[in-house]
From TrEMBL:
Function recorded in the entry: An accessory protein needed during the final step in the assembly of 30S ribosomal subunit, possibly for assembly of the head region. Essential for efficient processing of 16S rRNA. May be needed both before and after RbfA during the maturation of 16S rRNA. It has affinity for free ribosomal 30S subunits but not for 70S ribosomes.
This protein's domain notes: The PRC barrel domain binds ribosomal protein uS19.
Matches recorded under InterPro entries: PRC_barrel-like_sf, PRC_RimM, RimM, RimM_N, RimM_N_sf, Transl_B-barrel_sf
Domain of life: Bacteria
Keywords assigned: Chaperone, Cytoplasm, Ribosome biogenesis, rRNA processing
Database matches in NCBIfam families: 16S_RimM
Name of the molecule in the record: Ribosome maturation factor RimM
GN (gene name): rimM
Source organism of the structure: Eubacterium segne
Compartments (UniProt record): Cytoplasm
Residue intervals of the RimM N-terminal domain: 7-87
SUPFAM superfamilies: PRC-barrel domain (SSF50346), Translation proteins (SSF50447)
Domain Ribosome maturation factor RimM PRC barrel: 100-166
Length: 169
């Protein structure tokens, strides 16, 4: 399992005092209200940052960090991920999993057939949709509903599904 979970992506600077606009990639946007520490993935290593200010504007979060006090210091980090440790992640309910933990799971059918691998989860609003790459290289979209997803064993990286009639047509 991944050590870090992404909570946002720095999209641009904000003002001249080192604040950044962040596109949130978390289901709970208000989690930034109580977020004290984040990890910046600089692509060359990880940098620990302390959050000292949080504001919201439209669909963005504006963050200020203790380590930066001018715009020139944050410009190089545009487009980079903000991460949290699993200990600082939003607690999950029973039966909930982080997408990063599900990606890579082997997909087997209720008939015992090795169907493929989960490569992504699309969040559509109504229900999630699993993007499965078959062994033939084809992408299949499976609705994450009880009639289709029968069993999840994320620890063993296996998800059992029922291929509903018409899904592969």
């Amino acid at each position: 399992m991944e050590k870090y979970l992404r909570v946002g992506v720095i999209t641009s600077t904000h003002g001249v005092h080192g604040e950044v606009k962040v596109y949130p990639t978390t289901d709970d946007v208000r989690r930034f209200d109580y977020l004290k520490d984040v990890v910046l993935d600089t692509k060359k290593g990880y940098m620990e940052l302390q959050v000292t200010g949080v504001k919201y504007f439209k669909n963005m979060v504006i963050l200020r960090f203790k380590q930066f006090d001018n715009v020139d210091q944050v410009i190089p980090y545009k487009g980079m991920d903000l991460l949290v440790t699993r200990e600082n992640a939003v607690p999950l309910e029973e039966g909930e999993y982080f997408i990063v933990d599900m990606v890579g799971c082997k997909i087997i059918t209720d008939e015992g057939e090795d169907f493929g691998e989960l490569v992504d989860v699309m969040q559509t609003g109504a229900n999630d949709v699993y993007v499965v790459k078959t062994h033939e290289g084809k992408e299949v979209l499976l609705p994450a509903i009880d009639e289709c997803v029968l069993e999840k064993n994320i620890e063993n990286k296996v998800i059992k599904v029922h291929i509903m009639k018409g899904l592969l047509d």
